[in-house]
Amino acid sequence: MTVLEERPTQHAAVFAPAFDAQTDPLDVIRWALQTHPDLTMPSAFNLNGVVLLDLAARAGYTGEVVFVDTGYHFPETLSTRDNLAARYPQMTFVTLNAGATPEDGQTDPTLYAADPDACCAVRKVAPLQAYLRQQQPSALLNARSRDQASTRADIPFVEEGARRKINPLAFWTREMLEAYAAAHALPVNPLYFDGFLSVGCWPCTRAVKPGEDARAGRWAGKGKTECGLWAGEGKL
Ligand code: SF4
């Protein structure tokens, strides 16, 4: 029997189950769907995101999958999005555009190099924040997991903050994700198999080296580890 406990949260009327590390992610998603029928799912379609999409489909999720097109994505990432949209027609895939591109001459084309925090704030965080202000979902379904990086080592299943985040894959390892993706023939971004274990914008992503964290190739050498969506002052 699932024990219910009240968590200190802005969702004071909402009770969250006392999940533990062995809880099946499907149970977490099913609880999320019952508790937050207006749940929405931002995704960048990395390995974690692809696995979460498939699990969400199995749990009956038919909501929106929201992708922020910064204007700097690899073609492989855009193809992965399109493959997933075709595979899960019961969901609505929404692409948010970051607006004017540097190539239009309307924003500084060197911003990602000169000030990647500012670039992410404008091209990633702002479009998603604007979408969330408009849609006002009570919670987000998110694919982060503890073993992606040391900075994510404490991610819980249910994360409170400006908006509740539900992280069904919190305790899954990379090996578990890879095994699930292979078993279900999921359309993983092909760059993953070239060592891009976490794929972001092309100016800010490199393949990881053996033994590195999955996210070590993101903003490598720039003193930055997160885009700002999930950590930092402006986090969701
Ligand atoms: Fe800009 Fe790089 Fe952030 Fe993409 S990842 S929004 S290119 S700084």
Structure explained in plain terms:
- This protein has a single domain (4-10, 21-176, 184-189), classed as HUPs (Rossmann fold, 3-Layer(aba) Sandwich).
- The longest helix has 20 residues, at 116-135.
- With 236 residues, the protein is an alpha/beta fold.
- The two termini are 32 Å apart.
- The protein has helices at 25-35, 47-59, 75-87, 111-114, 116-135, 174-183; strands at residues 4-6, 15-17, 41-42, 64-69, 92-97, 139-141, 158-159, 164-166.
- α1 (25-35) crosses α2 and α2 (47-59) packs across α6 (174-183).
- A 3-stranded parallel beta sheet has the order 3-4-5, with helices on one face. Strands 6-8-7 form a 3-stranded mixed beta sheet, with helices on one face. The protein has a two-stranded antiparallel ribbon with strand order 1-2.
Question: What is the gist of this entry?
Answer:
The chain has 236 residues and is of the alpha/beta class. It has helices at 25-35, 47-59, 75-87, 111-114, 116-135, 174-183; strands spanning 4-6, 15-17, 41-42, 64-69, 92-97, 139-141, 158-159, 164-166. GO terms for molecular function: phosphoadenylyl-sulfate reductase (thioredoxin) activity.
Number of helices: 6
Q: Determine the structural class based on helices, strands and strand pairing.
A: alpha/beta
Mean pLDDT, to the nearest integer, reads 88
Q: What is the beta-strand fraction?
A: 5-15%
Q: In total, how many domains does the architecture comprise?
A: 1
CATH class assignment: Alpha Beta
**Bound ligands, named by name, code or SMILES:** iron/sulfur cluster
Shape, per Cα inertia axes:
globular
Task: Tell me the helix content.
Answer: 25-40%
CA radius of gyration is 17 Å
Question: What CATH architecture do you see?
Answer: 3-Layer(aba) Sandwich
GO molecular function: phosphoadenylyl-sulfate reductase (thioredoxin) activity
Pfam families: PAPS_reduct (PF01507)
Subcellular location: Cytoplasm
Main location: cytoplasm
